[in-house]
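Blackboard transcription, Thursday session:
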Amino acid sequence: MPNIGSYEERLKNFSWSIAESELGYEPGKGLNVGWHCSDRICLMGKGDKIALFWEGLGGIEKRFTYHDVRRASNTIGHFLHGLGIQAEDRVCLFMDKVPELYLGTLGILKIGAIGQPLFSAFGDESLFVRLENAQTKAVITQRKHAPKIRKILDKLPFLEHIIIVDHDGKAPLQKKEVVFSLDKADPVEHLDIHPTEAESPSLLHYTSGTTGLPKGVKHVHYSLISQYLTAKWVHDLRDDDIYWCTADPGWVTGTSYGIIAPWSLGVSQGVLDGGFSAEAWYKFIEKHKITVWYSAPTAIRSLMKAGEEIVRKHDLSSLRLLASVGEPLNSEAVLWSEKVFGKAFLDTYFQTETGSIMITNFPGMKIKPGSMGKPFPGITATILDPKTYEPYAETGKIGLIGIRPGWPAMMRTYWNNEETYRKKFQNGWYMTGDRASLDKEGYFWFVGRDDDIINTGGHLVSPFEVESVLLEHPAIAESAVVAKPDPINMEVVKAFVALKAGFKPSADLDLEIMNFIRKKLSPLAMPQEIEFVDSLPKTRSGKIMRRILKAKEWGEEIGDTSTLEND
Amino acid sequence: MADDLKDSILKYVTAEYLEEGADPIGYDTPLISGGIVDSFSMVSLKRFLENKCKISIPDEDASPEAFDSVNKIADLVLRFTRA
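(Written on the board underneath:)
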């Protein structure tokens, strides 16, 4: 019987106090995610249980018990204190999926500072924007990523410490750099946990929007409540599970469901540091007898592309539950996983802003391949009329997904951007920015974004951000960036570029521009295709009509062109 | 010719995908599974190879496995150069 039991029964008498009680949290008393994910598990007698088994490049393996996690996070927290990091200071984690990323997150939370995990593939410009916005005081990083920080250091007066976790002594440390080694530091057995409360800030996750700069989504310690319960009821995590979340903690999934949820449940989890490889992934599952696997549609489609023969070479019989997140899981992938793994991937839906799963498929529930599933108990979700922001009375109509505010992991604001935060609420509903429909049985069906944001491989990329950087290239006069359909990544970035006088389109320039964006922003933001044009479609007032370019890419009707500037 | 090709691939990957001060890579260093070149960046590497070697690599052949080391990339390029 799944942990959730009967979904219908849960809906009848649901309260978040179920999770509060299981976590030993009393409303009004202190709450600290770092403590709940380590110390509390040790106090429950599970200190010697494996919390993390990690595999890195070159076959290096490390194992950490919950006692190890407790001590390591204490040690990191203590080190940060020693540098002068105080409660609510922002500490960025800018690392590959190494143990220090996971342990450091808890250490930061334990001292009441605010963790700011950032994807380690971000270029210096993407990094600058996020560190500048948060006025980050310290960055915990690896020596290979330190050069990106050095490039922008002079523009970040608030940044006081660059903490290198793998310094090898070969090159001298540079301005503001200090060394921390988990292996060499004296372990701290006891750390005074900062008296954080439910509404104390915990994490800042950065997310891209269509316009403007990336926004820092502020989460609080109380997010633990819904992160814990959703993992228990959706992923069905139990004491003897071996869990693997493939998401990088630079993204909300990798933190909510790659650190906080599994460790708050006292479950053992694995982390594989490295890029995608079907062989390596199946080997990891087989070797560690993974039972619950949480991944993303892009990875699943890549596994489909790798074929079934490679699956047959590995014993994957340990797998008992598969789940997916980041973008809608197409029905083909659901049917494929049923055929190949004997069970369907459960599609789950949430956002950086929501902090925990909102609409989902559940173990034991009838799955409709291609459907998002149903709202998690305690979540009121509906489809709103875009004109009135009122729920549609009838099912089957496409509208905007709205969610009643107030669940535990709901963002509390956008950092220094309260105005944009307030615009996310209309008529008493949190607006996800996604369009969907609802069928008669209460299943949600994703249609698309309501804005121009690009979802590539499950990650949001802002066309505005890419266009802005394109204009920094000496050859480019104008640019427009849209989503282009892709069989693996769902969407990829495509750039339309008009060149300045004196520059001509060429294969070399095409590659140069791709690399320019890749290095300044990130590989995700890199246009996978560049089309050189003489001019971009504009309105008479000079606004670029991205909609027309996008419609052509998707084979859709171009729509009203009455405002289009005549050639 | 094959050695020249490998060297130019190695040089390009080192210049474009490795940060300054990073450990040097060899012909067999795992590039994709090793996290040096991610699946999105693979497109730019494919474009480089196509431009440099005046070939066209079909998408279905541009797999993470085929791009996972300098040696494997060179084998892929030679396959389409001879074709």
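Lecturer's comment: The mean pLDDT of chain B is 90.
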